[in-house]
Amino acid sequence: MIAQRVSLNNLLAIVLTAAAAAYVGWKISQSPDQAVQFAFNGLSVGAVYAILAMGFTLVYSTVWFFDLYYGAAAALGAYGVFYLRSQETLGGLYAVNNVFVNVLFAAVTAGVVAWALYESLYPRFRARFSPIVLRAILGLVAAGAGVYTGYVLSFPKDLHLTLSPVIAIGVAVAFTWSLYQVLQGVCAGRVLLGLVSITGLVAAALGAYCGYLIATTPDSKLYLSWGLSCFLAGIVGLAFYRGLYVYMRERSRSPLIMLVASLGILLAITALTSIVFESTPRPLPEALGNDPLAIAGATIKGFNVFTVGVALVGFLFLQFLLKQTAFGKAVRAIGDDEEVSKVVGINTTTVIAVVFFIGAIYAAMAGLLSGHDTAIQPRMGLLLLLKGWIASVVGGIGNLQGAIVGGFVLGMIEQFGIWDLAGEWRDVISFLLLILFLSFWPTGLLPRK
Amino acid sequence: MRQRPPIRLFSLIALALLALLVIGCGGAAVTEQEMPEGEEPPFRIGVMESLTGPGETYGNVAIRAKQMAVDEINAAGGVDGRLLELVVEDSQCSAKEAVAAYRKLTDVDGVKIILGTSCSGAMLGVAPLAEADGVILFSGLASNPDIANAGDYIFRTQISDVEVGIGTGNLMWADGVRKLATITEATDYAEGVRRTTVAQFTKRGGQVVSQESYASDVTDFRTQLSKLFDEQPDALHLAPQSEFAAGVIIKQARELGYAGPIYAETISVGTTALEIAGDHATGMKAITADLHPDNAKAQEVLANFRQRYDYVTLPWHLGSAYDNVYIAAECLRRTGDDQDADGFRDCMYEITWSGAIGNDYSFDADGEVVGLSRLVVEVLPVAERTAENHGYRVLGSAPTE
User: Fold this and answer.
1) Interface ipTM above 0.85
2) Chain B residue whose CA is closest to A290
3) Which distant-in-sequence residues (6+ apart) come within 8 Å of B289 by Cβ?
4) Is B258 an interface residue toward A (CB < 8 Å)?
5) Three-state DSSP class for residue A321
6) What's the pTM value of the predicted model, to 2 decimals?
7) What integer is the mean pLDDT of B97-108?
8) C-alpha dihedral (A26, A29, A31, A32), degrees to nearest 10
C-alpha cells in the first residue's frame, strides 16, 4: 500500500516536471532573451529566499517550532538600515530618530550582554571573586554596553566614528584568538604564552589600523548600518528566546502555544514599525552596484549578483559551523533529541539561544538585501517569512542543502510561472507550490537524513 | 497552587507600548485654534485628506495648504468676524477609512461641509453617503472621471482624468508612439487615467501591445516590466497611485535596460517620486496640472508655503487645496451658517473664482471645474532640478487635438 503510494507520487512528480519542462522549453524557444531575463530575475529573488530558508531551517530543525519572529527579524534588519541611514534616503524627507526606539534597543542589548557575561564568565570567576563584586562588575559592563548602543543609535550620522573602536577591538581579539587556536596545536606552556603576547601586540596594531580605516571612510556608514541592524535583530531574537520561549517551552509541550506567542510578537513588531515609520513603502539608500549589467541579451544589477554571493557565503559558513565545530555538533544533537542532549551535558538553553541569534541575523540580512533591491514596508516580514518557509519545504525541511536549493527553485518557479499570467499571480504560484509539496512530497527535494 | 502571573510586569509593558503609540500618533495631530471668550462660535469645516497611506505625500501638502489658508483668513479677521476652524480626519487614501472618517466628522463633530478627499477611491466611497445625507464634499485633488456623476453635493477643483487621458493620448500620438505598453496601479484613480489615455490613443490609431496592473503593496515590478518590454513597445505609459510606486517603476524599468520614452501623470513628477527615480526619470514626460508662472497669487502662495513649512511639492495640489478654503470661506460669508449645506451648494454653482490655480474658474452642473487646463512637462536631469522648478520644465499646454 505504502509502496504503491510512493510510486504514485513519483509518477506525479515525473509528469509535472516533464510538463513544466516542456512548457518552459517551448517558451524559451519562442523568446530566448526573455527567458534569460526571467532566469536573472529568478536568481535575484531566489538568493534572498535561499538566505531566508537557511536561517529558518537552522532554527526550525533545532527547536522544531515555527518561530514567526523570524519574519519580524527580516523587517527589523531592513528598517534598521533605513533608521540608521534615513538622512540620506529621499534627501532626508522622512528622516526619523526616536529616543524611545533607542532606549528600547539599548535596554535589550544590556539585558542580552548581561546574560552572555553571566553564562560565560560567571562560572569561571565565581571561585576567585565574591559573588557580589562579580555581579556588580558584570552588571556595570552590561549597562555600559546598553548605554553605548543607545549612543550609537542616537547619532547615526557618525556611525563610522562611533563603531570604529568596537571594530578595532573586535579585529584584535579575533586575530589573537585564532592565532591562539593555531599555536595551541604547535606548542604549549610558557612558549605559547610568550608567542601569544607578541602576536597580541601585532593584533592590537592591526585592530587599530582597521578602526582607523573605518573612522576615516564615511562611505562605510551604509555597510556598518547593515552590520549593526543585523546584530540588533539577532540580539532581539536571542532575547525573545531566552526571555520568553524558554519559560513557555518548560511549561507547555505544545508547539501551538509557541506559534501563537510568536505570531503576537510578529504582529506587535509590525505594528510598532508602522507607527515609527508609517505604513507606506520606503526605499533604502543606494548600495553598491545599482547599474545594470548586460549579459546575453538580458540585464541584471550588480547588487543582485552580490546577493547571490551572500547566499553562497552564508551557505558555506553554516555548513562549516554545523559540520566542523563542536557548537554545530551540539546544534545537530539538540535537533535530533533535546532531552538526551541535555542528559549528556550540552547546555541546551545557551546553544539554542545562539541558534536564534544566528537565525535572526540571516533573516535580517535577507530583509535588508531585499529592501535594497526593491523597497521596504512594515508588512514585508510576514511575506518574507512565508517565502522562506515555502523555500524550506520545497528544499526539504531541516536540511541546509535543501534550503539553498529550495530558495533558488522557488525564485525560478515564481518568475517562469507568470510568463503567461499577470504579475499578481506570483504569490498564488508560490502557495500552490507549497500545497503541492505538503500534499505529495512533504520531505521536499532533498530530505533531511 | 499555581504561581500568579506577574501582573505588574505586564501592565508596565502595556504602558510602555501605549506610550509609544501615543508618541507615534502625536505627529499626525493638527492643533486646533483656541476660541476667544465672548465671541461668536467659529465656522467649522470638516477636512478629510490621506495623511497616511499611499496618498500621504499629496494629502499632507493639502492639509498644510488648507491650514495656511485658514490661518490667513483668521489673521485677517475671519469670515465676517467669525473665525474658521478645521476638523481634520485621515482618509488614508482608502474608501473604507474615508467612510469611517466621514462618519466621525458628520456624526461626532456635526459638520455639514467637508473639504476632501485626496484620493479618488476614497472620494467615490464617501460620495454616495454625502449625497444621501446632504453633506457637501469638495475636493481639490480627486480626479477620477466618475466623480462628475457622483451627485449634487459633490464638487471639485481638480480637473477630471478624462482631460489627462485625452492630453496624454494625443501627446504620445504626436510624438510618434504607435505601440504602447501600460503599467497601472489597481486603484480608481490610476485605472481612470489608463482607461481614458488608452481610449484616446487607440482612437488616434495607436495600439496597446501589452498591459500590466499591480496591487498597491507591490515593491518588485521587474517581472511585469520584463514582460512589457518583451513586446518591443515604442513607449511606456505609467499610471500609479503613490509616488513611491512611480519612482520605483521608473528606476526598475531603466535598470532592466529600457531606454525608450516614459509618459506619466502628476503623481509621477512629485518630489518623492523624482527623488527615488533619480536620473532614471530624466526626459520623462507627464501631463500635470501646474501653477502658471505668470499668476501672481500662485507665486505668493508658493512663497508663503515655503516660508512656513520649508518645502514645496506638488504645487498645483497645494494651490488647489488652498483655493478650496477661500471658496468655502466666501460661500460661508454668503450663507452665514456652516450647517446650511443647501445654501452652500447653491453658492458653489453660482460662484466664479480667481485664485492660485487660475482666474475666473467656475463649476458646471456636475460640480466639475470649468476654465482650467493642464500642462505638458519634461523631467530635468538631477543636476538641474531645483526647489523652484520642481524638477521639470513646462513644454506647453496639453494637446486637445
Assistant:
1) no
2) B255
3) B158, B159, B266, B316, B317, B320, B357, B372, B374, B375
4) no
5) helix
6) 0.78
7) 93
8) 120
